[in-house]
Amino acid sequence: MSIKSKDDIIQAVVVADTFGDEFLPLSSDIPLALFPLINRPLIDYTLEFLSLGGIEETFLFCCSHTDAIKAHINQSVKDKAGWSLTMKVNVIVSESCHSFGDCLRDLDRKGILRGNFVLLEPGTLSNIKLLPIVKKHNEVANKDKGAAMTVIYQEAGIGQMGRDLNEEVVVAVNNNNRVLFHRKLGQSRDRKIEFPLEIFLENSNVSLHHNLKDTHIAICSPSVLPLFSDNFDFQSKDDFVKGLLMNEEILGSTVYCHVTKGSHFGGAITNWRMYQAISHELQNKWIYPLQPPALKAHNLKNGVVTGDKVVLNDNKKIANSIIGDNVTIGKNVQIEHSFILSNTKIADNVIITHSVIGPNCHIKANSRITASSIIGKDVVIENEQFIENSLVQSTQPENCEEKDKLGKKAFRLKLETDDDDLGALSRKLSQLHIGDSPVEESEDEAFTDSEDEELSYTQSPVPDDTKLFFTEVIDSLTRGFEDELRCENLILEINSSRYAYNVTVKEVNFNVIKAILIMSLRFPIGAQYFSQFVRLLSFFAPILKNYIRNEGAMLDCLQAIEDVAISNENVNEKWVMFTMKWFYDKDFVTEDVIMEWSKSLDTKSRFYGQVKPFIEWLEEAEEASSSEDD
After folding, report:
1. How far is 163 from 210, CA to CA, in rounded Å?
2. Domain C-terminal end among 414, 437, 453
């Protein structure tokens, strides 16, 4: 019986911190490693993946919330978690590190890694079989002494849910899968990529790939850590790859790649978009054998997953959401495409859509939380609060303005980022979602004359496929209106986007009409405002006619008007009255549908006060018509 030497043990390094503000305000209280992913800490999936992949020793590098992570690892060992039976986990603490690169430089100084190792970026989980890739890397390194890293990619077509738009990448490789060119596109709109001519002159065969996503997993040679130490501008793995390709002759190091296909999955929770995507993939067992906790028989109805000790007084309006342990939900609560973390209480008549509610929160009656809002730990949302596209934490931030105080334990948080940062781009997408341009002050009665409030946007929203569809729709319609394109062509674009994001007919109707109405808010306010509004609606009339075909679509239209009016405080009664009357006069909505829809409105709401004059006008017209008939 042979016994492995210490040098033969396969090691892995997991960096636990993101060093960014993508997950604020929740990340202030909960480390990413302990984020609940379908009611199980993220790090449990990561360690299970490494254990199943044949890793025998893992170094978990932590820079913040170290006591909580240590406590969880120790408790998991006591509970004899599956990974603890075959793999040793060492928690390394260094609170002085401020980047991924700093962590690797610190590891180099400690000298605890003995050979090739597997490197995982923050938030990574996978079901990829590691040992064959490690063996292949060893074979390559024996032939190419400069081979420093094998980056693992997964084959993924454009539009796949698990493919992050912020991480779009173009890679060129030769016959041996040596990386010759690597460019991270992010969400750049550049339509031209320039490849160095020498990569084609020096290689008989070059393959170009744009169908890959980064799994955030790499197999590293011992030279990787010294390379990070010698190059302090290497702050991330992407910096490392880019630096080696640019200075290949000076550094004498090369990078290779391995592409997985089929059922092999790899990815990382780098933002809320990926949190949602990976939750969906776990829920549908696409990352088997990694699985969430055993699901109860009543779960998964309408795409809902619940934890232990959940009290649902009415589950008819809960769909496509994940509910944590010990959550109490009152009557007539609507929850869609959201995450409710543990020990949270939601009172009656609350609406939560496309948002994340942190642990130990209390959402009081008649509140509405929507449009990519992130509610931090211990927040208390008072009665009848309306929160949209906001980060909310329980403690008062520095330089907090009075308008950002939502309650004794609820404060709106604002993030400052550079214009060229990906976070700034996320905010721009969010801005499109709620109206793109703040309305200027005016004496025109169509809008309130209160001072414009500065909009607060989330750094990394919880965009789902529907939101991405909405973004494409508003881009297409804006371009079509400015360039006076044929509406028939725009309908083809919209339908193409619909199939790409797999949205329902109802979502298409709602988002197309909402996009058109939001575009009207960009016009300058003045005497010509409503004439410009009419021109916009008339231009898009063929599109409206195409999508508003039945009573269900009429209801979608009315709900879009309601959503835009509620989401934009500067819009008042005159705008609502004008919009309702235009759709009614053009026969896009009928009186019967309007009257039936009006019965569902909250009579105490601001919007009901805006739409009430139009409802009364319809009733008076009906009474006058009845009198004439008599």
Report:
1. 11
2. 414
In this structure, the answer to whether residues 322 and 277 fall within a common structural domain is no
Task: Judge if pTM exceeds 0.70.
Answer: no
- Residues with Cβ within 8 Å of 376's Cβ and at least 6 positions away in sequence, in order, are 24, 25, 26, 28, 29, 358, 391, 392, 393, 394, 413
CA angle (85 as vertex; 80, 89 as ends), nearest 5:
90
pLDDT at 453: 34
| Percentage of the chain exceeding pLDDT 70 | 87
- pLDDT tens digit string along 287-343? 888 888 876 544 556 778 888 888 888 777 888 889 999 999 999 999 988 999 999
Kindly report the three-state secondary structure assignment for every residue of 234-272.
CCCHHHHHHHHHHCHHHHCCEEEEEEECCCCCEEECCCH
Query: Which CATH number does the domain housing residue 220 bear?
Result: 3.90.550.10
Per the CB < 8 A criterion, the answer to whether 485 and 372 are in contact is no
In a domain, 295, yes or no: no
Place of tokens 């990926």: 274
Q: What is the phi/psi pair of residue 260, to 5°?
A: -95, 155
The total of structural domains in the chain comes to 3
Q: Directed axis angle between helix 591-598 and helix 551-567, to 10°?
A: 50
Q: Are 383 and 401 in contact (CB under 8 A)?
A: no
- Cα 333 to Cα 108, 365, 383, 390, 555: the distances in Å are 53, 9, 14, 20, 20
Task: Let me know: does 217 contact 237? Beta carbons within 8 Å.
Answer: no
How do residues 529-566 score in pLDDT, each as one tens digit? 888 889 999 999 999 999 998 888 999 999 999 998 88
Structure-token pair, residue 30: 């909960």
Domain that holds residue 479: 423-629
- 368, 441: one domain: no
What secondary structure does DSSP assign to 465-478, as a single string?
A: HHHHHHHHHHHHHH
Structure tokens at 90: 């060492």
